[in-house]
Amino acid sequence: MAKNRAITVQGIPVTVSYEDIDDFICITDIAAAKSDNSRAADVIRNWLRNRSTLEFLSTWEEIYNPNFRVFESEHFKKEAGLVTFTPSVSEWVEKTNAVGLYVKRGKYGGTFAHKDIAFEFASAISPVFKLYLIKEFQRLKEAENDLQKLEWDAKRFLSKNNYLIQTDAVKNYLIPVCNYRKDLQWLPYAEEADLLNVALFGFTAKAWRGANPELAKKSNVRDYATINELTVLSNLESHNAQMIREGMDKKDRFEALKEIAEYQLRVLNEAEKINNRIEEQ
């Protein structure tokens, strides 16, 4: 899947970028709905200095980012509304260790926000624009899902003849040499996405990139997942969100997620083998 895609919302091109944890949308492009590109940074800065914005960003980070610095975020909230308070996105990210926003430099750069935050930003720009943004974003995801389904069907057909070659390549090339499920030194510093990666695949995204530098230039570990693994991954995301709400600590959540992943993947793989045998008869 291409990392950068573009959608057109009320005549305005908006960039969508896929990162390790989810889709991010360029809010610099969205700001163009309210002003020209030269003033987009001012629009974003004014939005960021609003207390309700900071409350939203802080809550989102506390839910999804275990490394978020809550104490530093309180400083921003106290300054909100003051004439002298003109924070930048870079300052917010640097001081709070936020992951929901980031700034990309260069000709095709801009400020990108996780889709949840981008939709909230669009509300501040124009409720109507937000509705069209959601509509076009959903259209993009539906098109990608259709494409992925075709790719999965093709992979399943080919795997019947190439199963041994494929599994040998994965074993010897794609998987980093380290047992992350037993050696938990990485755990205190892991983001939620890697909690799921290790529970399901057995290694972190960083470890995979280190083992596969060429592949990592244009793809990530989840691009090489089977349809069964992606199904389990979706379920793990739901289970993890519920455990976060229940206040479970990271180690207990990891152990639970690992158990769920092993069980569900075993069930799906066994069912697939049975279906393949039936089809071949």
Automatic annotation (TrEMBL):
Any coiled-coil regions, as ranges: 133-160
Keyword annotations from UniProtKB, A to Z: Coiled coil
Keyword tRNA processing on entry: no
Pfam families per record: KilA-N
Signal found in the keyword field: no
Residue ranges of every copy of the KilA-N domain listed in the record: 3-140
Domain of life: Bacteria
Protein name: KilA-N domain-containing protein
Record organism: Oliverpabstia intestinalis
Species lineage: Bacteria, Bacillati, Bacillota, Clostridia, Lachnospirales
